Amino acid sequence: MPKRNNARPKEGALSNYWLGLLSIGFVAATLTYLLAWRIHLMALVDVVWTAGLGIAAIVYLANMAEPTLRSYAVLAVLLIWSGRLSTYLIRNRVLSGKEDPRYAYLTAHWGNNARRNYYPLFLLQVLLVALFMSPVSIAMTAIEAPWGLFDWFGIAIALCALLGEHVADRQLANFRAAAANQGQVCQQGLWRYSRHPNYFFEWLHWWAYVAFAVHSSQWAFTLLGPACIYLFLRYLTGVPHAERSSLLSRGTAYKHYQLTTNTFFPWKPSQPDQH
Question: What is the pLDDT of residue 1?
Fold first, then answer.
């Protein structure tokens, strides 16, 4: 029987791929950092990893000897995610000229050290691209079983995550666009069941690669995706900064929202303790 290695990267290409990813990534991150500082818009840092991950996935597939249907499906899922999020960030942050509240806070907090401190943050995005390419690459090269039920499950997860995040973003944007809602807390639609439904669906997206790679001998490593994104969003880069910003801008109304609505995972609202 022929060896089943048709979906593996070309010989010698794998080590060169990761080396090239880091080298080119650091140059791109440095140039983006210089541009961000020049236009005073540090939110560009998020575009480095969202767009960078899409580009990295394309290059990875190009280095595969004979990509499979699953390889192309994984790439399509990743590119749709990358394209949607990158476009959202560019449209709502870069082109609008509105700094992300997280980075406005960091700039004020760091003061005179902001320029020095932001550069490592931009370089960190390259390491994040490499980290999250790990589960994506395993899913791309999973050839232990033909296309089947779990692959369709991966597609379903990806579509659900994409739709959920899009709906959450639109609901929040429409709420904020209404003049009568200025200073109020959005508790409509998905925001009634989670204070951060956009982050929840972002986390859900990374389970798609687990489904694609379920038959691979390396499938356990794909759990790095949902595990790391949950850690970052829930405890580091997402929820803490968003909550701080909302408390500063909405005060008591947001405190009440915290008492009645789950932080991350959607669930029915509860009644605040009256005692």
Answer: 39
Phi first, then psi: give them for residue 36, nearest 5 degrees: -60, -40
Q: Which residues contact 11 (CB under 8 A, 6 or more apart)?
A: none
pLDDT at 9: 55
pTM of the model: 0.88
Question: Long-range contacts made by residues 148-156, C-beta under 8 angstroms, separation at least 24?
Answer: 150/211, 150/212, 150/214, 150/215, 151/70, 151/73, 151/211, 151/212, 153/211, 154/73, 154/74, 154/77, 154/208, 154/209, 154/210, 154/211, 154/212, 155/73, 155/77, 155/208
pLDDT of 114 strictly over 70? yes
Neighbours of 268 (CB within 10 A): 9
Which has the closest alpha carbon to 119: 32, 10, 248?
Answer: 32
4: three-class secondary structure by DSSP: coil
pLDDT in tens, 205-239: 999 999 999 999 999 999 999 999 999 999 998 89
Cα distance between residue 247 and residue 241, in whole Å: 10
Length in residues, the chain: 275
Check pLDDT > 50 for residue 7: yes
Residue 197 neighbours by CB under 8 Å, 6+ apart: 164, 165, 168, 190, 191, 266
Of 263, 251, 272, give the one whose Cα is nearest residue 194.
263
